Automatic annotation (TrEMBL):
<protein>
    <submittedName>
        <fullName>Basic helix-loop-helix transcription factor</fullName>
    </submittedName>
</protein>
<dbReference type="GO" id="GO:0005634">
    <property type="term" value="C:nucleus"/>
</dbReference>
<feature type="compositionally biased region" description="Basic and acidic residues">
    <location>
        <begin position="21"/>
        <end position="38"/>
    </location>
</feature>
<dbReference type="Pfam" id="PF00010">
    <property type="entry name" value="HLH"/>
</dbReference>
<keyword id="KW-0804">Transcription</keyword>
<dbReference type="GO" id="GO:0003677">
    <property type="term" value="F:DNA binding"/>
</dbReference>
<dbReference type="InterPro" id="IPR011598">
    <property type="entry name" value="bHLH_dom"/>
</dbReference>
<dbReference type="InterPro" id="IPR045847">
    <property type="entry name" value="AIG1-like"/>
</dbReference>
<keyword id="KW-0238">DNA-binding</keyword>
<keyword id="KW-0539">Nucleus</keyword>
<keyword id="KW-0805">Transcription regulation</keyword>
<dbReference type="GO" id="GO:0003700">
    <property type="term" value="F:DNA-binding transcription factor activity"/>
</dbReference>
<feature type="region of interest" description="Disordered">
    <location>
        <begin position="17"/>
        <end position="42"/>
    </location>
</feature>
<feature type="domain" description="BHLH">
    <location>
        <begin position="27"/>
        <end position="76"/>
    </location>
</feature>
<dbReference type="InterPro" id="IPR036638">
    <property type="entry name" value="HLH_DNA-bd_sf"/>
</dbReference>
<dbReference type="GO" id="GO:0046983">
    <property type="term" value="F:protein dimerization activity"/>
</dbReference>
Length: 196
């Protein structure tokens, strides 16, 4: 036992109860200190990574850096919300009608996506007339021969179901495709130039 080291020059089983308790407390304190150091090292490594990701943050203290990161995350969240809002108004390749209640009001929110064609709005007006529906607000986006129109509608004689049926009939009666139309919308000329 020449090579063994005991803190009190005696093996633990020969120590008095008070000395053994002191030895355990010192060992627990060392373990706690080592765990705290590892935790601080992990935090500092993550803060270092944040400094690399966030512009102009090299000389900030930890609290200022975290405040800057919070502001940056809020800004990115707002940008994502705006991007998703604008992408929801872009026409898709799928013909569809979506009807929903508009915020807790009696108005109906309607969306139609289909091929763009000159007579679409006249057809839409004809479809809404028997329902005594009035378009209060409209947002129309046309891109690449497709159109998406979002409406807020006040309908005296219609509910969500009857409005969806009327707009779906409009899609079905249109032939659901540009092949049935000899005339193209002026908006499409930018995307599909005519051959000469």
């Amino acid at each position: 036992m020449e090579n063994c080291y005991w803190p009190h020059d005696a093996p633990p089983w020969l120590l008095s109860p008070a000395a053994a308790a002191d030895d355990r407390a010192a060992s627990a304190s060392r373990s706690h200190s080592e765990a705290e150091k590892r935790r601080r090292d992990r935090i500092n490594a993550q803060l270092s990574t944040l400094r690399k990701l966030i512009p102009k943050s090299e000389k900030m203290d930890k609290a200022a850096l975290l405040g800057h990161v919070v502001d940056h995350v809020k800004e990115q969240r707002q940008r994502a919300k705006e991007a998703s809002k604008s992408s929801s108004s872009m026409p898709s390749e799928i013909d569809e009608v979506i009807i929903d209640q508009h915020h807790e009001s009696e108005h109906i929110k309607a969306s139609i996506c289909c091929d763009d064609r000159p007579e679409l709005f006249a057809e839409l007006k004809a479809a809404l007339k028997p329902l005594e529906a009035t378009i209060l607000e409209a947002e129309v986006t046309s891109l690449g021969g497709r159109i998406k129109a979002n409406f807020i509608i006040s309908a005296a004689m219609a509910n969500q179901h009857t409005l969806k049926m009327a707009l779906t009939r409009l899609l079905i009666s249109s032939g659901s495709g540009s092949s049935g139309y000899g005339t193209r919308s002026k908006r499409q000329r930018f995307f599909y130039p005519t051959s000469r």
